[in-house]
Structures are given as C-alpha cells and as structure tokens.
Write a structure and sequence with these properties.
InterPro entries: Aminoglycoside_PTrfase, Kan/Strep_kinase, Kinase-like_dom_sf
Protein name: Phosphotransferase
Largest sheet: 5 strands, antiparallel
CATH architecture of the largest domain: Alpha-Beta Complex
CATH class of the largest domain: Alpha Beta
Organism: Microbacterium insulae
Family: Belongs to the aminoglycoside phosphotransferase family.
Helix content: 25-40%
Number of strands: 10
Order of helices and strands: HEEEHEEEHHHEEEEHHH
Shape: globular
Strand content: 15-25%
Number of helices: 8
Keywords: Antibiotic resistance, ATP-binding, Kinase, Nucleotide-binding, Transferase
C-alpha cells in the first residue's frame, strides 16, 4: 500500500462517479485498488474483485460502525463482473502516513494508539454482527487456498474481546490537528481479541516511521506490551 508518486490513469467508472468534480489519486493497494479524492469532498475507491474482501462488505460495516464512531459515510457502492467501487464523504484530517505526520512520528504514533483504543472502547461487542476471531480468519484463509501453519491453530487465551478494526495499520487512522479524528478502511471489521489489532498497528509503525516506535503505540493505547500475543497475532496476520 502506498501513496502514488506519479499520476495514475483514472478508470472510466471513476470519472463517471466523479461527474464534474476533478479527481486526484491518493492511494494504491497491493491488489490493484485505487482511491481518489474529488474536489467536492468525496473519496472514490475502485478496484478489481478479489477473494480477500469486498467494498460491499466495507459498506455494510461502515453503516454499522457509523452509529458509534466517526467513519466515512457511504454515498454509493456497486460493482460489475470485474470491478467494484465505493464512494464516501470526506472526513476532516489526513492519513497518519501523510508527509506531515511521517515527519512527526511521535505525534502520529500517539494518535494512532489513542485512536485505536477509542475505537475499541466505543464499538459494542454484543451488538456487532461481524466476526474476526481466529477460527473465522483461519477458515477464511483456507477458503482462499492459504495453508495456515499448525503452530497458529492454538491461539493464546483471549485477553479482551473488542470489535477490531481488522486492518489497523497506521494509514487507516486519520489525524486532525495532531489528534486522531476518524478511522477508514473497515472492510474486515469484526469481533476478536484486542491484541489482534494492537499487534498489527504497532508492527506497522516500522513500515511507516522506521524502527523504535512499536512500544510507543502500545503505550498510547494504554496497556503494557504482551509479547506472546503480539508475536502470535503478527504471525497470524502474515500467514493469512
């Protein structure tokens, strides 16, 4: 996943969805998906269909989570045989990996950690219809032809069930005026152990800000590092 360094071709469907608005590419993921921002305060996500997640799933989860936390409002979603798309209303703030925040990693890492804790505290586990527990993730991976090592079939006991973001990498927290302001890309959101999110969020600090920030994010979240759960959930993430 990266912010495009050069102009990208705008798909015809994106131009159609944008209407008279101008668009600029702001994100590219590993599956060939692109995200564009329009000059009338919308985001348009467009990408090939894949068996890992779908924009339809994301739209459903955003609609549910939006009753409790600040997430993008879905304006339109759809797809055809090859591609799918999702249009949302823009929110205040920038990604935690925008240039200004990469230059201020201490601020960004604190915001991501505090934002993740706020998300976990706000979303009600008992009312969540979505699953992101270990058995679900392993079964989902198997359905995509991925063999999960036997060492990962016996997870650590659950510390605290929360509604996980499920892709809590730093880019998916928005920051406004130095504080977290919203969360994006919730296409796999579901109930799981909070360490499943903490492990990935802290691991992603090295990808985005360099080494040495993992424990700072965990401290901002408000817990002491649990090395066993961190190791397990990072291995599970990489395997699935």
């Amino acid at each position: 996943m990266t912010i495009p360094a050069a102009p990208v071709d705008v798909p015809a469907r994106v131009r159609e969805l944008a209407g008279r608005a101008a668009v600029v590419s702001v994100w590219r993921n590993n599956q060939g998906g692109l995200t564009f921002r329009t000059d009338d305060e919308r985001f348009i996500k467009h990408g090939p269909r894949n068996d890992e997640s779908s924009f339809a799933d994301e739209a459903e989860r955003l609609a549910w989570a939006g009753g409790y936390v600040r997430v993008p409002e879905v304006l339109e979603s759809g797809g055809d045989d090859r591609y799918e798309w999702l249009v949302t209303r823009a929110l205040p703030g920038e990604s935690a990996v925008a240039t200004k925040w990469v230059a201020r990693p201490a601020v960004a890492v604190r915001a991501v950690g505090e934002g993740l804790r706020a998300l976990h505290d706000a979303l009600p586990v008992d009312d969540c219809p979505f699953d992101w527990g270990v058995p679900h993730r392993i079964a989902h991976a198997a359905g995509r032809g991925i063999h999960v090592p036997s060492s990962l079939l016996d997870p650590p006991p659950i510390d605290r069930l929360v509604v996980c973001h499920a892709d809590a990498c730093c880019p998916n927290t928005l920051i406004d005026d130095g504080r977290w302001s919203a969360h994006v890309d919730l296409g796999a959101l579901g109930v799981g152990d909070r360490w499943a999110d903490i492990a990935v969020a802290s691991m992603s600090t090295e990808w985005n800000y360099g080494p040495g920030w993992e424990d700072a994010l965990i401290e901002a979240y408000g817990v002491d590092p649990d090395r066993e759960r961190l190791a397990y959930y990072r291995e599970l993430w990489n395997a699935t």
